[in-house]
Write a structure and sequence with these properties.
Helices cover 76% and strands 0% of the residues. It is mainly alpha-helical.
Length: 326
């Protein structure tokens, strides 16, 4: 008979155990990048397929039609689904960076108290902004299909979402400024390190994003529909670059460099140990040979010194038969 099977408890892996030597969660913002632009190109394709016309029945006379309006009018289910996906990816990406710095999978915070508070504030405001974005997308869809949309509704949506997200990102970017300055001054003296490059690119992105959002809202309120719609398109296509920045941030570039450097140092240390061992063995063998030669010379010198110094032996040469050494 076969012995009874032993039941074993299967422990679910923790989030920390899912990461290997370094994290590979940079695929999450990269996934969000493709989802965001998939949403945008999908909306543009749906609008073109629908005849790229205006929608007076929904009180939408702008041309080109704003992407948000295309989503809630032409493909509401598709639009809301991808908005929810983006909200989750945004919040998860921000949390993963904080989490991996806390557990050491990424370089830890230099000033833990200040930077942890900045991270918490950034994450909280970002979550609120994304929840507001999702709720407003759903409410906007319901309003527009019931022909009950207020004229300033879209401007309020874009402005509120943009303000909350920009504050959240500004707090997040400040951590990179602190890290970049510290590494430039105290670690390796490298001015253009990963954190400084990331901070500068993000600040440029943030300034352009704020300018696009504010200008779009001002033109929309002033009934300049065409330039407002164009800037709205530009805003959404520009906004998606944020996911590339977070992919770069979560990619363990600095840590992989440190790993390669440590491997090189280990190889050099191994080579130096082997060379020292070889030199010691060589020096030991040479010393042993010298000791043997010196002992033989000491054995030879007493018995043959008198004969070698005599005139007879000098004339006859060295007498090998007088020694018993082999």
């Amino acid at each position: 008979m076969h012995p009874p099977a032993v039941l074993r408890r299967v422990r679910m892996p923790s989030l920390a155990s899912l990461t290997t030597k370094f994290n590979h969660f940079y695929f999450i913002p990269l996934f969000g990048f493709f989802c965001w632009y998939g949403l945008l190109f999908g909306l543009v394709g749906a609008w073109v397929k629908d005849g790229h016309h205006t929608y007076p029945q929904y009180d939408e006379l702008n041309k080109p039609t704003p992407l948000e309006r295309i989503g809630v009018i032409v493909e509401p289910g598709f639009f809301i689904s991808f908005v929810i996906i983006h909200a989750f990816v945004f919040c998860i990406s921000m949390y993963l960076e904080f989490y991996h710095r806390r557990i050491g999978k990424l370089i830890k915070f230099i000033k833990p108290t200040i930077q942890t508070r900045l991270a918490y504030a950034s994450l909280t405001i970002g979550v609120i902004g994304q929840v507001f974005f999702v709720v407003q997308a759903i409410v906007s869809t319901v309003y527009i299909h019931n022909h009950a949309r207020a004229k300033s509704h879209y401007a309020v949506l874009l402005a509120t979402f943009a303000v909350l997200i920009m504050i959240s990102l500004a707090l997040n970017f400040t951590n990179y400024y602190i890290m970049g300055q510290y590494y430039r001054k105290y670690v390796n003296g490298e001015r253009w390190n990963k954190f400084t490059i990331s901070f500068i690119l993000k600040i440029i992105w943030l300034i352009v994003t704020i300018a696009l959002a504010v200008t779009c809202c001002v033109l929309y309120v002033k009934d300049l529909s065409t330039p407002s719609s164009i800037l709205e398109w530009c805003f959404h296509f520009w906004y998606g670059l944020l996911m590339l920045f977070w992919t770069y941030d979560l990619y363990p570039l600095t840590e992989l460099r440190a790993l390669r450097q440590s491997k090189k140092e280990k190889k050099q240390t191994l080579k130096s140990k082997l060379s020292r061992t070889w030199r010691k063995e060589k020096d030991g063998s040479v010393t042993a040979i010298n000791e043997v030669n010196s002992s033989r010379s000491e054995d030879l010198s007493p018995s043959g010194s008198s004969e070698m110094n005599s005139p007879e032996t000098n004339n006859k040469g060295f007498d090998y038969t007088s020694f018993n050494h082999v």
